[in-house]
């Protein structure tokens, strides 16, 4: 059993609260085929980072912003197979409102579409549209702490991707890795790794502080 003490919890969205892997993979592969780009090269970096950075990496000759607008419109409309992660709603409901936020590499358009699958609306949400530097840069998680008015060192992050784990650590936060998108071996930089959200229990003290117990 591992225990973490904090003032707020920051959640990545895709692969943590919502299982959208099928939609993400499908739309990136369609995009790659349409532009004669190696699909596997795209998929190797497509999870956990902003779409604009993926496009700039694999296709620097293209207008990245225009490509991302088209891609994310299609991704937001692709609901096939998208569903809540097991245990996501139960976990969220144990955290007082205002003590958790969503920090995602997706756009606000995509994030809003994902939240419609049943996640209670968070007080704070940071998307790709809100930052200059995406994960693994610490800016997204630092902004998440700022949105909640919490010291970054007093936040715990729940992440499914190596880039997100690095971003959280760079922001001075502890990280629980969820082995959903990547195997546990790829999440070794996290402070703890779980196979499912049900392994995380949250208790709130009278002073409003959170205790996370990880099986």
Briefly say what this structure is:
This protein has 215 residues and is an alpha/beta fold. Helices cover 34% and strands 20% of the residues. The mean pLDDT is 94.
Question: Could you outline the blueprint of secondary structure elements for this entry?
Answer:
Elements: E1 2-6, E2 8-11, E3 18-19, H1 21-34, H2 39-43, H3 51-58, H4 64-77, E4 83-84, H5 88-92, E5 100-103, H6 108-115, E6 124-126, H7 139-148, E7 155-159, H8 162-170, E8 174-178, E9 192-194, E10 200-204, E11 210-214
Parallel strand pairs: 2-5, 2-7, 5-6, 7-8, 8-9
Antiparallel strand pairs: 1-11, 3-4, 10-11
Helix pairs in contact: 3-4, 4-6
* Number of DSSP strand runs: 11
Question: What is the average of the pLDDT values?
Answer: 94
Gross morphology is: globular
Question: In terms of structural class, how would the helical and strand content be classed?
Answer: alpha/beta
Proper CATH architecture of the largest domain? 3-Layer(aba) Sandwich
Number of helices: 8
Sheet-strand content, in percent, reads 15-25%
Query: What is the CATH C level class of the largest domain, in words?
Result: Alpha Beta
How much helix is in the residues?
Answer: 25-40%
Radius of gyration: 17 Å
**Intertermini distance:** 5 Å
Number of domains: 2
Sheet with most strands: 6 strands, parallel
Order of helices and strands: EEEHHHHEHEHEHEHEEEE
Please give the order of strands in the largest beta sheet.
6-5-2-7-8-9
CATH homolog superfamily of the largest domain: HAD superfamily/HAD-like
What low-confidence regions span 5 or more consecutive residues with pLDDT below 50? none
Predict the CATH topology of the largest domain: Rossmann fold
């Amino acid at each position: 059993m591992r225990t973490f003490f904090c003032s707020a919890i920051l959640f990545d969205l895709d692969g943590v609260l919502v299982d959208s892997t099928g939609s993400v993979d499908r739309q990136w592969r369609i995009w790659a085929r349409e532009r004669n780009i190696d699909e596997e090269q795209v998929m190797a970096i497509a999870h956990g980072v902003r779409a604009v950075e993926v496009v700039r990496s694999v296709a620097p000759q293209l207008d990245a912003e225009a490509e991302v607008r088209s891609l994310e419109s299609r991704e937001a409309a692709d609901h096939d197979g998208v569903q809540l992660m097991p245990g996501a709603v139960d976990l969220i409901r144990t955290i007082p409102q205002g003590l958790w936020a969503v920090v995602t590499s997706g756009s606000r358009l995509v994030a809003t579409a994902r939240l419609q699958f049943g996640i209670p609306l968070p007080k704070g949400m940071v998307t790709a549209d809100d930052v200059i530097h995406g994960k693994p840069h610490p800016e997204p998680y630092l902004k998440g702490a700022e949105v909640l008015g919490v010291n970054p060192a007093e936040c715990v992050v729940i992440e499914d991707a190596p880039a997100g784990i690095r971003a959280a650590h760079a922001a001075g936060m502890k990280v629980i890795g969820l082995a959903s998108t990547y195997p546990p071996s790829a999440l070794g930089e996290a402070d703890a790794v779980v196979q499912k959200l049900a392994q995380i229990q949250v208790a709130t003290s009278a002073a409003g502080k959170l205790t996370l117990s990880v099986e």
